[in-house]
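quick one
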Amino acid sequence: MIIAHISDTHIALDTPDADQRRSDLERSIANINTLDPAPDLIVHTGDIVHSGQPEEYALAASTLANARAPVYVVAGNKDHRANLRGAFSSRGYLGPESEFIEYAVDDYPVRLIVLDTLSSSSNRGDFCAERARRLIELIDDETTKPVAIFTHHPPFIVTVGPHPLHFETQEPMSRLQQALQRSGRVVAIFSGHVHRPAAGYVGTIRASVVPCIATTLRKGDYPAHMQSRPVYHVHRFDPDGGFATETRIV
Ligand SMILES: [Fe+2]
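structure w/ fe (ii) ion:
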């Protein structure tokens, strides 16, 4: 099972770098389309657009529609839940029943669970008791497969960059960490938001952050020849060894 993981495209209409952001996404999808073997799916871990506007989503969705593999989306702090739902609802995996953008994908050897870590008051992450309850229910719905989790905000202390904690406080992050560790079947956590690569653990669960696709917003030092080349991750799952992650440069 192969997952292509992209994040933080921040598609915009009126920023000075709007064309570059769109091009970064187009080129990334074109690059993913050349992977051999092909990925089973693509996951975008949020901040799909920059201002939450329907016109931005229309642009992002039309570009993502060029992907050969099915695309699953996660909501980031720059996303607007209702407008995101409007742009991607035809794909069938976004149930209308919840105020949160959360769902499970059961079509693969690893069960995928997408979480909503948005806060109503800041760009940082939140995870209320209701979401923790729903996560435990989602995990317990199917008990035979390992589980991979996708979030926008990384649920671990990020030791690179200026902000170690990407949740509003330790409390909601601890609540999420406890829910993730409870079953013993979560094998990996994949996130975005930080705009630079990072890795860590939630208990014994491996967790990683993919850099942002938008090259103009990327953090960290890259050599000059890479300044305009997006970076994404490919996560390959082996039943014996778990996930192995490759960094791809477009
Ligand atoms: Fe973000």
